[in-house]
Specification:
Chain A: It is a multi-pass membrane protein. Chain A: One of its GO terms (biological process) is transmembrane transport. The complex is a heterodimer of chains A (335) and B (329). Chain A has 335 residues and is an all-alpha fold. In chain A, 74% of the residues lie in helices and 2% in strands. In chain B, helix 13 packs across helix 14. The chains are: A mainly alpha (335), B mainly alpha (329).
């Protein structure tokens, strides 16, 4: 009973912390993006606007209000929706409203929702690859410790953790698409349109991101497994004649899993927040791509909206990781 | 306890806090590791090349900005004439497809950007991290709470995302390398600060620090004379991990088109144009990516060696392969 209670309190505390972080993040972002740089109205209106037009845009976007009022309106938009007048017509922006794009007056929320399928496709597939490869390699190198296999794997993972993901992707593209010609150059096909083409086109992005992440998991799995293997109960099992393979795969793996699960939750949050480099390299129309494009065209509302959504994904992932870790490993003190 | 404290991927344990170790022993241990010597030599060569970039390009008689339209095949879209991306006596590593600019000159000048930004950001990261960590450990409870929470947030948020977003805030004419240094420095100090806080909390209770305090040294003097020297080893170890990650971050930003402005050359920028050339001119992919890969790998290997050299107990433990000791003193 008491244990359950501490667990709940732990989860509740993490939740409150997460919400606080997000609110602070939104204030900081808002302050940075709307108050520091030049003139948002000028940016929204475009280069060729005359002062009168700029003033009109300023009125429409509510940029003539004091800063705190602007922020409160922004929050109101997020939680209750708000209306924008675009000169002649009135546009309603429903509940999680993050504003309108300066570029084409599209709603930021709609842009973000449009980017989700590509990003989710990438994240899920890459997760499968990095778990399979990372945990597999980690276990193998723990099982063959002291041997040639382990040294080779250690060098490979060391090289892998440092290599930027776009180098890996470029080399894979070059090998698979240009020389071996196993696959055509990937171009995104939505899952809803053609599942088979979707999978073929996502294969290379999955492999790239999965391989890149797997190096970290291999190291983590190896060290966690070795740590468990050094424990007393394993020594006892060994004395009773349990085979080394069974020790590693059955007993040590159990100890290695909690950190792997927790790190996966963290990374999934990061990737959901846009694996910008992978999306850029393969031309996937996801969240990361949206962010990069909006940064290039200085489309502030989109930048703020996407960063907030990414922040939310990461904060949720962190909280989930903490709770998962605590659930999976009872030795973690809930405090 | 947050998950990230347990995981800290790739970081490894910092050396145990205690009185500062001698620099000479560290140097000797580094010198006897072949991998460290090779990595060090590679990095020294790279640093020299970057420093002497104008000299080197004067020797090769090329500069990174001149277009050579006659060296690329404009009929086929701009692939360089000749084998291996147009390697010749005048253009040692060939030319850039499309423009015909000298690749050797661009790579060497690109190294300048990469190393300058990485080192500048590192300096800032260490400065902020050590200050915040010390303040959190030695300040009152409130200061510690606030600073530690800020640090948590800095560690958790995806850096590339924030770095990209921050670049939109700054006016166009602000010098880009400085901007990159500031953004990377301002965002990535969380790990250093955590480390310094934890180490300082331990140090504070050790005998030699207490002795200094009892001997009448003021708090600032204790920090400067007793704590900072002992913090040097763990901070250097951590900085050695930060440096390659800074290089990758700079390359990533310029790959996304948000690094230094063209025509200033940068490795990441070259790789982003290389995405359209990997069929026609594979050398243009292989050279910058190879250079970036070797640089990052060399820094990682050297960082690993520095860590073991600063903490010999770590080295012997790794060799024996026994379980991690939970307490070491």
């Amino acid at each position: 009973m008491t244990e359950r209670f501490t667990g709940l309190r732990f989860a509740a505390k993490r939740l409150v912390g997460a919400v606080t972080v997000l609110l602070v993040l939104s204030v900081v972002l808002y302050a940075l993006f709307y108050l520091v740089p030049g003139d948002p109205a000028q940016l929204a209106c475009g280069e060729r606007c005359n002062p009168a037009q700029v003033a009109q845009v300023r009125g429409q976007l509510g940029l003539d209000e004091p800063a705190y009022a602007q922020y409160l309106h922004f929050l109101q938009g997020v939680f209750a929706g708000r209306d924008y007048s675009t000169g002649t017509s009135l546009q309603h922006c429903a509940a999680p409203c993050l504003g309108l794009s300066h570029q084409n007056d599209q709603q930021v929320t709609a842009l973000i929702v449009a980017g989700l399928p590509a990003t989710t496709s990438l994240a899920i597939g890459a997760l499968v690859v990095w778990l399979a490869l990372g945990v597999g390699t980690g276990l193998l190198s723990a099982l063959r410790r002291g041997g040639v296999t382990e040294r080779v794997l250690t060098v490979l993972t060391l090289a892998g953790t440092g290599t930027p993901v776009f180098i890996l992707g470029l080399l894979l593209l070059m090998a698979v698409c240009a020389y071996l010609r196993w696959l055509p150059f990937p171009s995104y096909v939505p899952l809803s349109q053609d599942p088979e083409q979707w999978a073929w086109n996502m294969l290379l992005p999955w492999l790239t991101l999965g391989l890149f992440e797997s190096a970290k998991y291999a190291r983590l799995t190896r060290s966690a497994t070795l740590e468990v293997l050094a424990e007393d109960h394993i020594r006892t099992f060994r004395a009773y004649g349990v085979s080394e393979r069974a020790l590693v795969t059955r007993h040590a793996l159990r100890g290695a899993l909690p950190p792997v699960i927790a790190l996966s939750a963290l990374d999934l949050g990061q990737v959901m927040g846009g694996a910008m480099l992978t999306e850029q390299l393969f031309g996937l129309p996801g969240l990361g791509r949206l962010l990069v494009d909006s940064v290039r065209s200085v489309d502030l509302p989109v930048v703020v909206g996407v960063v907030l959504v990414i922040g939310t994904a990461v904060v949720i992932a962190n909280a989930v990781a903490d709770v998962l870790y605590a659930l999976a490993d009872r030795r973690v003190v809930l405090s | 306890m947050a998950v990230q404290d347990v995981l800290a991927p790739g970081a490894g344990d910092p050396p145990a806090p205690g009185p500062a170790a001698g620099a000479r022993g560290v140097w000797r241990r580094l010198r006897t590791r072949p991998s460290a010597v090779v990595a060090g030599a590679v990095l020294a060569a790279l640093l020299l090349a970057a420093l002497a970039a104008p000299l080197l390009t004067a020797v090769s008689g090329q500069d990174p900005y001149t277009y050579h339209d006659e060296l690329v095949n404009s009929a086929s879209g701009g692939a360089p004439h000749g084998a291996f991306g147009g390697i010749s006596g005048t253009h040692w590593l060939g030319v850039e497809p499309g423009t015909g600019r000298d690749l050797f000159a661009r790579l060497v000048y690109g190294a300048r950007v990469s190393l300058l930004v990485a080192a500048g950001a590192l300096l800032l990261q260490v400065l902020i991290g050590v200050s915040v960590g010390l303040a959190a450990a030695l300040g009152n409870r409130w200061a510690d709470q606030v600073l530690s929470r800020i640090t948590d947030v800095m560690v958790a948020l995806p850096m590339l995302v924030l770095a990209i977003a921050l670049t939109t805030v700054v006016p166009e004419d602000f010098p880009r390398p400085l901007l990159l240094i500031l953004v990377m420095g301002a965002l990535n100090w969380g790990g250093t600060s955590r480390l310094v806080r934890a180490q300082t909390l331990t140090l504070r209770r050790l005998d030699f620090v207490a002795a200094a305090r009892l001997g009448g040294s003021g708090p600032l003097r204790v920090v400067r004379r007793e704590m900072l020297p002992s913090l040097a080893a763990p901070v250097i170890t951590h900085a050695a991990i930060l440096l390659p990650s800074n290089i990758v971050l700079e390359a990533s930003l310029s790959f996304l088109g948000i690094g230094v402005k063209p025509p200033t050359p940068a490795w990441g920028q070259m790789l982003s144009t290389a995405t359209t050339w990997f069929r026609a001119d594979p050398m243009y992919v292989l050279l910058p990516s190879g250079l970036l890969f070797v640089t990052v790998l060399a820094f990682t290997v050297l960082g690993d060696a520095v860590r073991t050299a600063l903490d010999p107990r770590e080295a012997s433990r790794l060799r024996v392969g026994t379980r991690k000791e939970k307490t070491r003193d």
